[in-house]
Amino acid sequence: MIVKNLLDEAVKDGVMEPGGESQMASSLVGSVWNALPDVFSGTFGLRPHKVITAASALAHGLENPELAFPSQEALLLSLGRLLNLVQKNDPLFGFNSADRCLLEGISECYTRELRLERLMIARAASEKEAIVSEEEIVSAAVTTATDFMNASLVHVDKDALLRDRSQKAGACVFLLGVMEALLEGHRFSELVANEAGVKALGALGLSENSARSFVSRLPYMTSKTVGLQAKVEGGRSVVAWAAGKDDNASKRLLELLPKWEGYF
């Protein structure tokens, strides 16, 4: 019923043709159940919550396009709505350890598929419209990165962050992860990508020389877990923020700051 209700909403939004929602919902749930019968039957002792089962069905449909479900866009939209509901009401569901394990994989699937959809949209637009210059693409990415960082800095003490060497460095790595995600799919040279990073770091008040120095040290700073996580989380957060699917994406920087104390 959860999956059908979500597909009904997708029909109302015009991303899926009406008719067959019930059959599609049943097929989705049946397919993921057949793929993991022991998990969903509770063979291991814990049966997944019905919300997690619904999310698993949608994610399974996204990850297996050969199943030929009518609208991948509808699946992505529906999964995003369900994950948003889970995020806002998590304590009320009483999820067990099996739910948590499944939810982690579902969230990763959603982020990955959302990014792929954005790339496909960008590529389709480029085929229909006049070729956009490299400079315009980089400029747009820098603007988006700057807007996202400004939204993120609203939630922190910016002056204190800029005075703290570790937090400032972590925020810079986070921001360069933002830029990498925004430029993903464009076959820009390393030089162009680095120049984009230099421009973006202006959002944190770095001079051009300081920004260039920082960009040159990025491979070393992301060679260990904390640094790599900072960059990856920057990319994930801006994708969620730009898609308007996560109201808390701009708060991710605030959540990560304590982890960077004394690291960079």
- Separation of termini? 49 Å
The topology string of helices and strands comes to: HHHHHHHHHHHHHH
Count the helices. How many? 14
What number is the mean pLDDT?
A: 84
Shape: globular
Structural class: mainly alpha
- Can you tell me the number of structural domains? 2
Poorly predicted runs of 5 or more residues: none
Q: Rg to the nearest angstrom?
A: 21 Å
Total number of strands: 0
Major sheet: none
Share of helix among residues? over 70%
Tell me the β content: under 5%
Describe this structure in a few short sentences.
The protein is mainly alpha-helical and 264 residues long. It is built from 14 helices and no strands.
Key words describing this protein structure:
264 residues, mainly alpha, 2 domains
